[in-house]
Amino acid sequence: MINKVLAYAEQHALFTLTDKIIATVSGGIDSVVLCDILYKLKISFCVAHANFGLRAEESDADEIFVKKLAKKYNVPFYSEQFNTLEFAQQEKISTQMAARTLRYNWFEQLRQQLGYNYVATAHHQNDAAETILLNLTKGTGIAGLHGIAAKKAYLIRPLLCLTKDDIYEYVTENQLIWREDSSNESTKYQRNLIRHEVIPVLKNINPSLETTLNQTVEKIQGAEQIYLAYINEIKTKALRQEAGVTYLNLTPLREALALPVVLFELLRDYNFNYENTRAILETFEGISGKTFQSATHVLVKDRDQLVITSKDLRVYGSFEINLADEYFDQNGLKLKIHQLPAENYKIPRSRNIAALDLNLLQFPLKIRPWKEGDWFVPLGMNGKKKLSDFFINEKIPVNLKAKIMVLTSDKSVVWIIGHRLDNRFKVTDKTEQVLELEVQQ
Asked: Which NCBIfam families does the record associate with it (predicted)?
């Protein structure tokens, strides 16, 4: 079984034996097998467990079990607890979609933070078959017809070469124990309904259902290569990314064949569905400002472009800068900080650099999201201006506004970071020391 997984990994270039991998482990039978196989392949890996808090004490017991499992293999253990129901209600999505969004967002954050190469999940052939049927039932693009990809960017599925029967055989041979998730038996979840009631009926027609679907997947993947070549041609013309923001130019999009399908493919990575796509298409000739939200992103129609920004699924708080700090790196914002003598200092002409009179500041300074009611005195002016009015004048799209941070001193806005200084804190001929803050891209 281990050699089969290794051969599959080599065939699909999933990983090498020198890579560092995050194993996503629920404590169920599939993820326990994934851990054991990675261990026996002598791969450097850690264990990541997402606790969704959906089954009270049972969820906490799962976390304890996985922590002990990591200790057994002598590998690092990481866990995160989520308020999944609150997030699902806020975004008006299913509990399963909420859990998926939260966990994959966290896995990727963890991968980048730890410097690991890949995130591995324990999906197998039966999962892939269920996914194809579920996607067909709910509606899908061509990507949904090949179920679960063996590799997508930094996400890998080494067990897709195994069936559920293979998994059971492995745990029997290796005497492994695992946790049973009681929710797996509940048919109130769509995937469980497919697993327990639909697939058994289809296997009466075709006992080799999983194998047949895998063969179909190979044909679909060939057709998809041709399809994606055209999508990528349009993408090259229409899409640009800058400072974490995606811009889609409407001019080349309007010339595309099968525009609803093309736009759906361009927006799919941002978790907008086909229904969203049709609604967005209706705004192409309309006025600016129409906003759409997926579970992970916000899209705004802004003149002749679509502007897409990601939501921050972490708690958005305020952060301090102390007098001795030389660098700030929190919540996606990086600042280089200098204290310089004012003599011979040349004030930079860049929105990404703030030159402030150090003696006018009260430490610690704070960095936080802007909020309604904030005001400042724009550089070069004497009168107060609300930040909300400033953003309108600057024609800043709604979803970019939501990501703007401010630097404050004793509750006064000192700098709208990346946009404009407050006139009260500027460097003058009376300044003795300059505090310079520079945004690092």
From this structure: lysidine_TilS_C, lysidine_TilS_N
Of the listed ranges 158-172, 181-195, 328-342, the least confidently predicted one is: 181-195
The pLDDT, as a whole number, for residue 296 is: 84
Q: Is the dihedral of CA 82, 88, 91, 96 positive or negative?
A: positive
Helix (H, G, I), strand (E, B) or coil at 16: coil
Annotated binding-site residue? 222: no
User: 373: annotated binding-site residue?
Assistant: no
The full DSSP string for 358-394 is: GGG--SSEEEEE--TT-EE-BTT--S-EEHHHHHHHT
Residue 199 φ/ψ region, left for φ over 0, alpha for ψ in the -120 to 50 degree band, beta for the rest: alpha
Q: Is 44 annotated as a binding residue?
A: no
Write out pLDDT tens, residues 58-76: 888 899 999 999 999 999 9
What are the backbone angles phi and psi of residue 423, rounded to the nearest 5°? -60, -25
Whole-number Å distance between alpha carbons of 74 and 67? 10
| The listed CATH number (3.40.50.1980, 3.40.50.720, 1.10.260.40, 3.40.50.620) that belongs to domain 2-214 | 3.40.50.620
Q: In this structure, are residues 188 and 32 in contact, taking their beta carbons and an 8 Å threshold?
A: no
Strand order in the sheet with 291-293: 239-242, 245-249, 305-310, 297-302, 291-293
Confidence of residue 316 (pLDDT cuts 50, 70, 90): very low
Does 350 carry a binding-site annotation? no
Instruction: Report the pLDDT value the prediction gives residue 33, as an integer from 0 to 100.
Output: 95
Residues with Cβ within 8 Å of 292's Cβ and at least 6 positions away in sequence, in order, are: 272, 276, 279, 280, 298, 299, 300
Separation of alpha carbons 431 and 194, rounded Å: 71
Beta pairing, strands 239-242 & 155-156: unpaired
Enumerate the H helices of 79-124 as residue ranges: 84-91, 95-114
Domain residue limits, the chain:
2-214, 243-310, 319-439
The answer on pLDDT for 89 being more than 50 is yes
Cα–Cα nearest to 419, from 390, 441, 399 = 390
Q: Is 26 annotated as a binding residue?
A: yes
